[in-house]
Each structure stands twice: as structure tokens, then as C-alpha cells.
Amino acid sequence: MPHTRASDQGTSVPQSVTPPAELSLEERLALVDAVMTVRLEEAGVAYEVNTAHIPTGPLDLADVVTVPAGTVPEPLPALYPTPVAALLQRAHHRLLTGGWCSGTLVDEDGARCMLGAVRAEAHGDRGLEADAAAVLLDAVRRSFGDDVESVPSFNDAHGTSRIPVRMVADAAGLADARGL
What's this model's pTM, rounded to 2 decimal places? Predict the structure, then answer.
């Protein structure tokens, strides 16, 4: 690669400043340090500009560690003794075994969205369903901020089941911790 001068790259280097003919080791090191500092600052700014459009957020280990496709989880034992936590645990299991969908409560294959799984496992108890949906929304907002409007909007914002299904499991733990 041919050597390019700073003046070739659009930055101007004053031509009137010429270094002395003999520089001591300390002076040469100071000069190299100054040049490298400027280059690193320019590279840092370029990196920020080039990556500003990439959305970033905290990385959750559950988003990285996955199981092989096609594995069906075993039936879960009754871990939570409280009604809302047990309902959310059953909804989580339903999503794992029956499938997850977005855009509708239940799709043509029987897969359900987060709220559809809660509704199915509530067996018509609207009060229990409402309590579970409230805890689920709280769990989502704890992880993703108060900008989340509703459970269905959060569910439909995802293209895969990984995060919505994990949030139902997290909500079950939250409900248990609250004694609900």
C-alpha cells in the first residue's frame, strides 16, 4: 500500500513547522505519542459515526444460549404454589410445547402469543388472567423500559419466540416473588 501523507487525506499539516535535525529519544517518543493520540481520536470519531445507526442494548445470556431445534421440553413440575405464578408457568410451558405466534392470539396451527397462552391457561377466570397479564407487563417493562405499551405490542414486536417466551418465564418468577 503506498504511503499517504496527512495532507493527501484532507487534513492540513502546517508546512512552516519543521522538527530539529537531532531529536532526543524523549522528544521522538513525545512526537510519536502526539501523532498516535491524534490518529486514535480520529479513529474513535470515525467509529462512532460509522456505528451510530446500529441499535445496541444489554446482552442477556438467555438470548445467546439456545437449545437445538426440534427438542421438546419435558413437562414442568408444579414449581409455583401461588395462582398467578402457576398460571404464568403453565403459559410458558404452553408456548414451549404448543408454539408461539405474533399478530394473533392463536394462529391456524394452534400456536399462541404471550397473551393467548395466558388466556388459555386461565380457563375463563378473567380476574386471574388480568392479574397475570399485569405481572407480565411489569416484567417486560422491568427488562425493556416503560416505553412498552402492552403485552400484545411487545409480543408482536419480535420475530422469534425466544424473548417473548423468556419474558413469560421471568413473569412467573416475579409473580412468585410477590406471592401472587
Answer: 0.59
